[in-house]
Design a protein that fits this description.
3-stranded antiparallel sheet; 5-stranded parallel sheet; single chain; 52% helix; binds BIS(adenosine)-5'-pentaphosphate; 231 residues; alpha/beta
Length: 231
């Protein structure tokens, strides 16, 4: 099953992708996570990407496509994958189409996360990430009095705020989304693979809507059949 999760920064793509990984047993491929990992390991690509990410712009297509080619070639992507934050402009979408055609793996669905901007700004300002496992939390939905640490990792590591989640950078990321990524709604709509979900609902309701949409796909039924045979 080949999926794309598309939506503005902070719309909840990463949160839901983690749940889809558990349900369907296919990997989440987040270009944001891959670029942050390259940045943190100090590779040449990571250092080139860092300045652009910190400013809220888009990293060059050349870098991003290189990362995607490498990641899709890994064995765990053979049964399918969840693309999170990629493609982000028409050039990337066209390059993805060519790559998937050569692999004979067409996209099953592109899910558009619809959320209003006031909600997005609130979600991003409250986002905190575990520096060990990468799991995403939010200070507004955490129970009152909860300490800012990850309860799933040994040693309960501190949660951190992303540098590009500062207000001025978020404004720039939203502008970039409008100019470069929103045109993909028409691009995929014209191909008949686009489905929109109301991602303003709470996390559990969004998950339920996504599962209902994806479970109806023949590709999802095949994956779940294979998983239940294996267990
Ligand atoms: P990236 O990491 O992809 O960031 P993004 O697309 O801006 O998306 P986010 O990670 O901000 O949000 P999300 O939709 O995953 O929301 P989340 O689940 O965390 O990209 C970062 C940068 O890398 C880019 O700016 C660019 O520079 C570069 N880059 C990446 N891909 C690129 C590409 N293809 N080409 C070029 N450059 C690229 O949720 C947000 C918060 O809300 C969390 O705290 C969460 O707990 C909370 N939340 C989630 N769902 C709900 C809900 N339903 N109700 C209430 N709270 C919720």
């Amino acid at each position: 099953m080949q999926l794309v999760l598309m939506g503005a920064p902070g719309s909840g793509k990463g949160t839901q992708a983690q749940r889809l990984v558990e349900r369907y047993g296919i990997p989440q491929i987040s270009t944001g996570d891959l670029l942050r990992a390259a940045r943190d390991s100090g590779t040449e690509i990571g250092l080139r990407a860092k300045a652009v990410m910190d400013s809220g712009g888009l990293v060059s297509d050349e870098i991003v496509l290189g990362i995607i080619h490498e990641r899709l070639a890994k064995a765990d992507a053979a049964r399918g994958f969840i693309l999170d934050g990629f493609p982000r402009n028409i050039a990337q979408a066209e390059a993805l189409a060519a790559l998937l055609a050569s692999l004979k793996k067409p996209l099953d669905v592109v899910v558009q996360f619809d959320v209003n901007y006031a909600e997005i700004v609130k979600r991003i300002s409250g986002r905190r990430t575990c520096q060990t496992c990468g799991r995403v939390f939010n200070i507004y939905s955490a129970p009152p009095g909860t300490a800012p640490h990850c309860d799933r990792c040994e040693g309960k590591p501190q949660l951190i705020q992303r540098k590009d989640d500062e207000e001025a950078t978020v404004r720039k990321r939203l502008e970039v989304y409008e100019q470069q990524t929103r045109p993909l709604i028409k691009f995929y709509g014209d191909q008949g693979v686009l489905r929109a979900i109301n991602a303003e609902q709470d996390v559990e309701q969004v998950t339920a809507a996504l599962f209902a949409l994806l479970d109806a796909l023949p590709a999802a039924r095949a994956l779940q059949g294979a998983q239940s045979k294996a267990s």
